[in-house]
Each structure stands twice: as structure tokens, then as C-alpha cells.
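Researcher: Batch entry, complex prediction.
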Amino acid sequence: MILQGWEAVFFWVFSIAAIFAGLLTVMARNAVHSALFLISSLLSVAALFVLLGAEFIAGVQILVYVGGVMVLFLFVIMLVNVGAEEQGRSEILNKPRQVAVSLGFCLLLVGGLLFAINTGYRGLQKRDEAKLSGSAEQRLLQDQTLARGATGTSRITTDTQKVGNSLYRFASLPFEIASILLLVAIIGSVMLARTLKQEAAVDDVDPEVLLAKVAEEADLAEN
Amino acid sequence: MKSLVLVFAPINFVDALLLKFFSPETINNVVWPFIQIGLVVTLVAGWVAYATYLERKISAFMQARLGPMRVGPWGLLQPIADAIKLLTKEDFIPDKADRGIFFIAPYIAVASAFIVMAVIPFAPDWGVIADVNIGLLFVLAVSSVGVLALILAGWSSNSKYALLGGLRSSAQMVSYEVAMGLSLVGALMFSRTLSLSGMVNAQAMDSVWYVFYQPVGFLIFLVSGIAENNRAPFDLPEAESELVAGFHTEYSGMRWSLFFMAEYAAMVVVSAVAVTVYLGGWYFPFVYKFTQANGHHNLYVIVSLLVFIIKVLVVLYLYFWLRWTLPRFRYDQLMDIGWKWLIPSALINIVLSALGIFLVQAVNGWRGFKTIDSMSAGLNLTATGKALMIATGLIGLVITGMLLSRINWRSRDFNLKSQRRNIKLVNLPKGKPAVPVVAPAGGSEI
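Model: C-alpha cells for the complex:
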């Protein structure tokens, strides 16, 4: 991405929005507000993906994270959020140990960022103008081979096709393994969420036998 | 171009006017899109106003009434009277409501419905606002954001009815979104592109609508689209008889009408996508031959636009028709339709479409049969290929129906308890059963 003109304006707008929304996510008192700020942060990141020319990733980001994951998050927060409001009234920086640990991580992060920015700046100093303009020309040539969009002002890129091709040609096994992993996670979470009592109710166990068993389990847990 | 009537030449006139003030690049990338967006927003807002009128008139005719007749001739000014009433109504905010979220929820609903229209090709050439390579994915992604508005509205109202409506709507929309996305995959296999203009072009090149290749996909898309819009018979999130008005119980005045607007705009979006993907979009036989081929370019675009609008109106009529014909589903029936019928049939549809395309490719060149014309814009088939593909689609409809009715056969009334007595999850001596086993009503077990 070469930052110039409107592209630069949009880049700065969305990157600053992403950072501030991320900060507000951890600083908001209300869990629903946090979720909303997280959604804004995710949307800004999707916009950054569009600026990078990765439209497919941007679309998937919105579809999966905003439309799917965050909706389920909100669903859960609304069902579980009883009494969270009272806790939120206290100070943010009220636990010294946690503050110390997060400060330590902050320092690490700042150190890492300083190092990265320094290296990047040094790289910028000795950049090769000829190489840069050459790559820009190459990109322009590549753009011209793409099909024209219906509006006539844009080109239809082929990155979706590329993602699909490489995913199914070179990574079909990991892809399938990932889907199996998700299936296992679903079944596992259902099994974890069900209590002994629910299982026994479906198994049609005598209530007296069940009560004895539950008491036994409780004893085991205490010892 | 000289023979054009002035009525069909406004585009060139506007272009000439704009060129006096802006550079061609600015016109192409900024000014024209703004004009198009303004037109679309105005048209859809007008549609929303008159959709209420249409809905009342259609329901009235279905029930042998007259409907609104007092304001203007045949009650034609009724929507304007309604709008004035809504604008002057008190904007009520409940006590202890989360004000910020309560304010923005209607805007999220309206925005997510209107943004989708950016990628829909209303007509060729200047009838397209934006043509992106992820068109269909964009439509699904942005319309999935609309769920947030309903949940947030339900939660922020600080009302039990609204919260229940919000929870119901999120469960409903999340589960029907899956079927909606999967049903479109079959059509994608034929168009070989995600760009919506590309899909229309592929259908125009083939001179066939994808509804003939994809009858199952079209049906799934329609049903899940109606469910996504929370329209009857899937209007559980706002079921009047149990939840007052569901997620917008506490909204009044302009904010309530924003939700209303979002609902009707989302209906337009779903019908427009259905028309684009399955019903050929702006393509209609013979239009090109009588207009563009004779040099009337703008006439071609305008006639195509009219074709698109008429197709969308036909699909929209279906919404009204269904609303006043079918009763509301129960909640468990809704979940049954989504998870036991639509999603499995969408998956079967993907497999069968892939098999159909494989068959067409295998037959191509076998004993002199020629099925594939070219693969340049979508999958272009010859007449033999088309007949084969349509036959595969119909057989697919039958196979899907039979397979699913077999799988779901008596899935509602089978005796889970008596089956589960044979499977032990907990290693416990059974003792006497907690609930006496009742013999199933139908007699024999599965």
C-alpha cells in the first residue's frame, strides 16, 4: 500500500478509529458498550483490509466477526449480565497487582514498538526509488490485465479466486481438520454444559438413586 | 445517437454539464456515485412510504375490504398523513433505558439495509453504483450487521418484551443466515464470480435465469430471506399476540418509523438479490436486440432498469401475499424449518449442483454431444447442456425433497425417552423409571 491522497486520509481515519475503539473496549464500564466498541474496532480493521486490496478478507471479517461472533457475544452478555452494573461502579485501577502486571506488559509493548518503528525508519531512509517506481509500474500493468467492472471505473480483482484455489489445492487437509476441530468443540461444549442431573433425567434414572449419586459426587469433590 | 428523443438523453446532458465543473476522474469516482446514491435512497424511501399503503390495500382486497380510502383519491395520500403523524409524535425514551444505544440502534438498522444497495446492479452501465469482486459476500456481510440493531434495541429498552423480542430475533436471524449463505453457493458455481454484475452478465450471456438451474437454491433463499426480514409468517420477534411489538415495543415516533423503514428497505434488498442471482437481474430477452443493437444506449439502460424494478416488485408482492395468507409459525416450528429442512437441503443442493456441473462437463465431447459453449463469463452452456442442467435441477428438487422428508420423517413425534432408555450416558443402575413410559401415539417405533 502506497500512502498518498485520499488513501492516506482513509488509512489514518480508520487506524486511529481502530486504536481508540480498542482502548474504549477495555475501558468501558458496561459489557454491552465494550462489545459495541469491539465491533467498531473490527469494522475499522475491515476497512483497513479494503485499503490493502484484500476485499475478500474484509468481507469475511465483517460476516464472521461482526455478524456472527459478536452477535453471539451480545446474546450471552444479555443473558448473563445480571448484576454486572454494580461491579462496574468501582475504580478502574483498583487492584495494585494487576496494575503492575499490565504496566509491565505496556512497557514491553512500547519497547517493541519503538524498536519496530526505528527499524522501519531506517528502512525508509535507504529505500530504492527506482525499485519502488518499478513495482508501482508492475502493479499498474497487473491491474490492466484484470477485467473491467460494470461501472467502468474499477477493475474486478481475482483475490477471491486465488484464496479459494490455494485453500483447496494446497491446504485442503488442514482446512478439513479445522472443520473437524470446530465440530469437536461444539460437541465438547454441549457435553461440558450438561450436568449429571440433566443426563440422568434423560436416562430416566430413579430419582432416589440419582440423589444418592449426586450426594456421593459432592462428597468426592469436597475430599 | 442523433435520433434519440430528448427524454432518453438526459445522461449525456448531465455529463456535459458536470464536465464544466469537475475533472472526468472526479465525476467518475465521486460525483456520479453520489447522484446514483441520492436517487436510490430517494426511490427506496418513497417505496417505504407507499409500501405501507400497498400492504394495507392488498390486505384489504384479500379480506374483501376497501382499505384506506379517505385521504386523497383511493387513499393515495395516506402515507403522507402517516408520515406527518409520526414526525410530530412524542419521541419517548423509557426510564433507565441505555440512552446512547437506544438512540443508535434504529440508525444501525437503516444503515445496514441501505449500504447493501451500493453493490446491487440496477441496470447495465450507469445503473451500477459499485461493482466489487466480493459483491455477494458484501451483501451477506452487511445484512448480517442488521441483527445487531434488533438485539441492541431490545436490550437498551429496559423492557422484558423488548428483550425477549431481541433474543428471539437474534436466534432466528443467526440460524437463517446460514441457510441463506449456503443456498447462494449453487448459483455461484454457474456464474463463477462473486460480482453481482458479473452474475447478471453470466445469465444474460447464457440467456437463462438461474432459477431454472437452481430451483432448490431459489426456494431456500426465498424462505430464509423472508425469515431474515422478520416478515410474516416468520415475524416472531414482533409477535403482537405474545410480545406486544417485540424489540421495538418502547420505540415511538420517528425512531419507530426508522425501524419500519429498515424493514421495508431490507425487503427490497432481499428481493433485489433474489432477482439478481436467480431471476436474471436486469436481463430480459429481446431488450438488447431492440435498443442497444440499434444504437439507443440510454434507452437500453432505462428499459433494463424498468425490467429490474418490475421483477423486484413481483417478488415484493410475494411478501404481502404470504403475510396475509399464512399464519405465524410457532417458535419450535421456526427452528425446525431452519435447522432440519433449509440448512440440510442447502447442503444437498451444493453437492447436487457440483454433480450436475461435473455431469455436463463429462458429457461434453462424448459421442459428439456438445454441452459447454465457453467458460469466459460464467459457465455458458449450449441448448443440450441447458436442457441437461434444467433436468438435473428438477431431479435435484425431487431428490432433496424425498431425502429430507425421509430423514425428518416423524422427527417431531418419535419417542426420545423410550429410545434413550437403551443408551446409557450415566453409569447408574436404572431402578424404576422416573416417568412411566408412555406408548407412542402412532403405535410402532422407528
